[in-house]
C-alpha cells in the first residue's frame, strides 16, 4: 500500500493559506503524503466510532513518524452529534493532554468529523494546524475545498462556524470501498451538482460513468473527485469569504437544508437532501424560464441513477410549502428574510436570485412525494 | 453631547481588515462616529446587566438612525460568565430574531463583553460585522487592538477563540467616570505595561500624571488610551497572528493568569493579576541579570500608585510555587510544557524566553504575600 497509484493533486491557491489536495489509492498510510505539513510534537486524530476501527490505527501508525505523541478521539457518529457539546469533547481532549498551539488536528472521517475538527482547530487557542483525511465521497468532493467549518445550532444548520483552511487534504480513494452504498450515493449528489452549475462536460462524463462510480472503480473516482475539487477551487479562489459567486455551490442546498431540518437532522443524508433539492431548484429555474423541461428531466434521471431521491419529503401534512418557506427563511443565504435561490441560468451556468412565494410554492407542491 | 471634544484617532493598519479607533469625549451617542461602519438592517447590542441601565438606551438611540431593528441583549456580568453557555445566549438571540449575515453586533461593555461579542461575531454564520464600544479603561487600551476574541474553558482562560477584527472601536472617555475605582486601576495596569516593554517616555509621563488619570481627567485619559493603542497597534501590525513579537504584550500576564486561575476567575480582576504579575516578571528579569533592582522598584512604586496589588496571591499553602508552575504550564504561550516568560531585556525593551524552574520558584516565593 506504499506506492501512490493514480495519485493526483489539486492546488488550492489562497495566498499564504494555500494547500494541496492529494487524490489517489493507498494514500492513508503513505508517509510521503504527510511530508510538508507543519511539524509539531503532538497530534490528535479526531474521528468517529464507525471510522476509528477501520482506519485510525493505520493513520496513527504513519503519524507516529512525525509526532512524538499521537492520540485518537472517536466522537459519536452522525449529523445529530454535530453540536457544540460534541465539539467540546475535542477541547477537553486537547486541554487535558496539555496540547499546545503547535498541535496538529487530523480529521479522519466524513463531513461531520471534518467540519467539527476544522472548527475545533480554528478555535483552539485561536487556531492550530489541521489536516483533512476525508473518508466519504461527500467529504472528499465537498469539504476538501473551501475552508468551511461549523457546528449546528438547534435553530439552524452550520450556524456557528469559521472559515479556516487545512494544511492539506488527503483523499484516499480506497477507503470509499468500505462506504455504505447510500453514503456513496449521497456523495455523488455533490459531484453531479458541479455539472449544471459549471461544466456540462462533467454531466456528459457522469452519464457515461455512473455505474463505474457506484462500483468504486478507482480511475472513475479519481476523475470525479479531482474534477469536483478543481471546479470548487476555481469558484472558492475567486470568493473565499462567500460574498457572492461562491453561493452558486449551494445549488440544491436551500431546498435540501429545509428537508434535512424539517425531517430532523440525520433522517435524510445531506446528499439526499441535495439530490431532491437539485430537482426542485432545476424545476424552479424552468418556472423562471431559464432552462427547458428536457434539461430538468436529464438532471433528474442522472440523480435517480446515482441512487438518490428525486422528490422532496412532506414536512407538514397541512401546509407543506409553508413549512419549506419557513425553514428556508432562516437559511444563512437568506437576506432580511428574502430567500436567495441558486438557479440554473442556462445549462452549465448558475445564478442567485429571489423568486415569488407563489412560484416557489407551486414548485414544492409539484416536487414533493405525496 | 454631540460635539467631539478631544477626539483622537488611531488607525489600525491590517490591509482589508483595517479599522479606526476613535477616542474622545461624548462619542457614545454621536452619530458621526458610527458613519462608515457597514450598514445592515439589523443590529444587536450585546452588553451586561451593569452597563445596560447606564448606556444601552443611548447607544440604541443613535443606532436606530442606521439600522431599522436594534435589539439589546444584557449578559450576566463577570469573568465567571465568559463561557460557551453565555456565548450561546448571543446565538440564541440572533437566531430567534432571524438575524442574517449582514447583522452588526455592537459590544457595549468591558473586556468580557468585548471578547465574547467578538467571538460570537466571528462564529455566527462564519462571521458578521462587529463594533467595539468599550466602557472600561482596560477594554479601551487593551481589547481595542489586536482582534483577540475568546471564551474561557474550565481548564484554561481564553482557550477557545478567534482572531477577528472589529469594524471600528469607539472609546468614549466620559463613560470611565462611572467605572468603580478598582476597575479603573485594573485598566491602568495595561497602560503601565506599555512603558517597560516599549516606551520609557510613557513611564515618565505616567509618573507625572497618575493622579490626573485616577481622577478621570479627560485630557490625561485621552493621552493614555491613545498612546497605549498606538504602541499595541505597532506591535500587532507587525504580528497579527501572534507568531512572535506580539507575545511581548503579555508582560506580566503569565504570572497574572496563574493568579486569576488559581484564585478562581473573578476573584482577582485581570488587571490586578497583571499588576502583581508585572512585578514578578520584572523580578525574574532582574534575577536573569537583564535589569537592575532600581528598575524593579520604580515599576513597583508606579503599580502601587495606580492602586494595584504588587504582591502575588498565595495559591497553595503547601507548595505555592509548584501551583504557579503547574498553572503556567497550561498557558497558551507554553510550548511543549516549557513556560515562555516575557522579560524586560533592558528598560523599554521586552523579550520572550524560558527560565530555570528553580529561579522561577525563588521569584514566586519572594513576590507572594505571606
UniProtKB/TrEMBL annotation, chains A, B:
<keyword id="KW-0170">Cobalt</keyword>
<keyword id="KW-0963">Cytoplasm</keyword>
<dbReference type="Pfam" id="PF24621">
    <property type="entry name" value="DHQS_C"/>
</dbReference>
<keyword id="KW-0547">Nucleotide-binding</keyword>
<keyword id="KW-0456">Lyase</keyword>
<keyword id="KW-0862">Zinc</keyword>
<comment type="pathway">
    <text>Metabolic intermediate biosynthesis; chorismate biosynthesis; chorismate from D-erythrose 4-phosphate and phosphoenolpyruvate: step 2/7.</text>
</comment>
<protein>
    <recommendedName>
        <fullName>3-dehydroquinate synthase</fullName>
        <ecNumber>4.2.3.4</ecNumber>
    </recommendedName>
</protein>
<dbReference type="GO" id="GO:0003856">
    <property type="term" value="F:3-dehydroquinate synthase activity"/>
</dbReference>
<feature type="binding site">
    <location>
        <begin position="135"/>
        <end position="136"/>
    </location>
    <ligand>
        <name>NAD(+)</name>
    </ligand>
</feature>
<feature type="binding site">
    <location>
        <begin position="77"/>
        <end position="82"/>
    </location>
    <ligand>
        <name>NAD(+)</name>
    </ligand>
</feature>
<keyword id="KW-0479">Metal-binding</keyword>
<comment type="function">
    <text>Catalyzes the conversion of 3-deoxy-D-arabino-heptulosonate 7-phosphate (DAHP) to dehydroquinate (DHQ).</text>
</comment>
<feature type="binding site">
    <location>
        <position position="253"/>
    </location>
    <ligand>
        <name>Zn(2+)</name>
    </ligand>
</feature>
<feature type="binding site">
    <location>
        <begin position="111"/>
        <end position="115"/>
    </location>
    <ligand>
        <name>NAD(+)</name>
    </ligand>
</feature>
<keyword id="KW-0028">Amino-acid biosynthesis</keyword>
<feature type="domain" description="3-dehydroquinate synthase C-terminal">
    <location>
        <begin position="187"/>
        <end position="334"/>
    </location>
</feature>
<keyword id="KW-0057">Aromatic amino acid biosynthesis</keyword>
<dbReference type="InterPro" id="IPR016037">
    <property type="entry name" value="DHQ_synth_AroB"/>
</dbReference>
<dbReference type="InterPro" id="IPR056179">
    <property type="entry name" value="DHQS_C"/>
</dbReference>
<dbReference type="InterPro" id="IPR050071">
    <property type="entry name" value="Dehydroquinate_synthase"/>
</dbReference>
<dbReference type="InterPro" id="IPR030960">
    <property type="entry name" value="DHQS/DOIS_N"/>
</dbReference>
<feature type="binding site">
    <location>
        <position position="270"/>
    </location>
    <ligand>
        <name>Zn(2+)</name>
    </ligand>
</feature>
<dbReference type="InterPro" id="IPR030963">
    <property type="entry name" value="DHQ_synth_fam"/>
</dbReference>
<comment type="similarity">
    <text>Belongs to the sugar phosphate cyclases superfamily. Dehydroquinate synthase family.</text>
</comment>
<keyword id="KW-0520">NAD</keyword>
<feature type="binding site">
    <location>
        <position position="190"/>
    </location>
    <ligand>
        <name>Zn(2+)</name>
    </ligand>
</feature>
<feature type="domain" description="3-dehydroquinate synthase N-terminal">
    <location>
        <begin position="73"/>
        <end position="185"/>
    </location>
</feature>
<dbReference type="Pfam" id="PF01761">
    <property type="entry name" value="DHQ_synthase"/>
</dbReference>
<feature type="binding site">
    <location>
        <position position="148"/>
    </location>
    <ligand>
        <name>NAD(+)</name>
    </ligand>
</feature>
<feature type="binding site">
    <location>
        <position position="157"/>
    </location>
    <ligand>
        <name>NAD(+)</name>
    </ligand>
</feature>
